[in-house]
Fold each of these.
Amino acid sequence: MRTSQRKAQEVAERDQALVRLALDMISRDGFHNLTLGKLAQEAGYSKGTVYGHFTCREDLLIELSAESARRQLRYFQAIADLPWTGVRALYGMAFAYMRHAVVAPVLFECSITARTDAVCRLASEDRLTRRDLVESQMEQVVGFVVQRTVSEGAYANPDVSTGVAVDALRAYILGYAAMHLLSRRFLWADAEQLDDRLAVMTSMMSGLGWPRLEKAELAEIHQVVVDVVDGITKEYEANS
């Protein structure tokens, strides 16, 4: 391996190590207590080394949101590759988005905060571009599944385009996930409320124009998604 390649690999590995450490620190102390100086101290690096990776705390936040997107992309791709109809895959992606908020709450919360203009104004263009690339890949996978539902004749809403319907579905899922993060006392946060969540999900989907699925089929899809998301999450934890 050439010296330049080896250095680039070392920088990438250090970058990821800093992201993992930042996640641990946020889980322990909250994002409001995280500074690049504290990150450098816990990592055993100089401030200059850490600032060489992240121009500011907002830059780190963008990278955390990119990490969140990379994990979601893996969930979505794994679900899209299952031998399912387009509708089952679309339901599966919705459940995966919700499950991500449960198993990786810090990453999910960072991804929400990192959408604000205040954060994006301060972050570097390089970090923003890298995150946008991952998110565009996610959109491509979702778009592929949506088009599959259309080709299968499973979308029937002449008044709303599939793009608008997907955006409305995304808003509902984001609202659920945000409420789940804000309070564990949220009505649907407990496992015992799964039937209610499944019922609301199929009501939302059918109201937008996709078929309503029966509870047994929804429960089956949900369990497969839980296994996919939790399995990928364990891989990340094992490599931390």
Note: The first helix runs from residue 3 to 29.
Amino acid sequence: MKSSNWLIPTGLVLLAAVPVVAGSFRLAELAGGPATVPDSDRVTSAPVALALHIVSVTVFSVLGAFQFAPRFRRRNRGWHRAAGRILVPCGLIAALSGLWLTLFLPPGPHDSTALVVIRAVVVAFMAGALVRGFVAVRRREFARHRAWMIRGYAIGLGAGTQAFTNAAWLAAVGPITTTGRTATLTAGWVINVLVAEWLIRRRRAAASPLGRAVPGSVPSAR
């Protein structure tokens, strides 16, 4: 059914909605509007890096969602390639600007050294995944390209999942603490990576003879 072809992209856009809306409020603050998001004084002290991060994350998460509409992608291969040329740079800008903000802004009230290290690892993984995906498609290794782009996109969409892990902590434990912030942000990234690996392996198994996995192969979504 045509509607099922758009189910995953719609879900991904909805998942991205919370960080995208929060980012739009931040941009409004940078343009001279009132402070409506917590921690404004600290975060907005680096306006260029913050604006780059918000815009690149928004484009990456929203435009990337439509790469998961398989029929649309197969029927519009030119669009898929053009979108990819936008997504890879945006993803790299999002990752590197996020790392800059992590390393050079004063720490937030509940930031820890462990969280800084975890963020650095996450950024390195996301950037590496996008670069490997780009190299793979240049070599016409399309299965590897899809797998690495799925991994990179999953990390980039971490803020959406973190809205739910934060809500779960608030409901189960109470106000966010330093430990809670580290745990909930890490959980968001881990959940997305696990879902990405499940999806990659599911497609790999579906494409192999008798449903057995073939290392390094990921078919097109159907």
Note: The radius of gyration is 18 Å.
Amino acid sequence: MDREQVLEWTRAERLGIAGFLEELAPDDWKRDSLCTGWTVHDVAAHLTLSTRTTLIDLLKGAVRARFDWERMEYDKARERAARYTPAELVAQLRETAGSPRRAPLSAPLDPLTDFLVHGQDIARPLGRPRPMPGPQTVAALGHVVASPFYGAKKRLRGVRLVATDADWSTGPGPREARGPAGDLLLVVTGRAAGLAGVTGAGATVLGERLA
């Protein structure tokens, strides 16, 4: 995957999310996202961190959270949400939209994946459509399935995924789960909300695993 292309895609997603957030009402920022225990404000704060987290920040956060990765990310997001207003977070997203910096240990496709998925974490509970661009979503899908970080291999054991809106599939089966690439991306990153657009025997298996 061409890194300049990935960086341009990421820049576009960051600016798109900034514009989306800018249109939200104050009460929308207090609403729950698809991430359990995270508000829209928390998720927005988390998205500003990918270009601002240093190795020292990561190590300190890991120690404070007793090396619980999810707890560390939650604590960092909550701290930043308490520190910055919605308008300030939107400005930060715009400020570093084109930055090539990314969090330590992350791959070039991780920031793009983060924004694609978290964009849905925010938009879907609010009932607001946010289309997911095809090539970017397919690239993120392939990355998540191949990466050990997201836990997708265990989640997809025995299931074949087939995108209905793109030339993409993965897994030997025997059970098949079919759906739009955007919904599949949510599923492979552990979000049961993505199953709303997925059909097939594999969808049933995935529903049980994501319950």
Note: The mean pLDDT is 95.
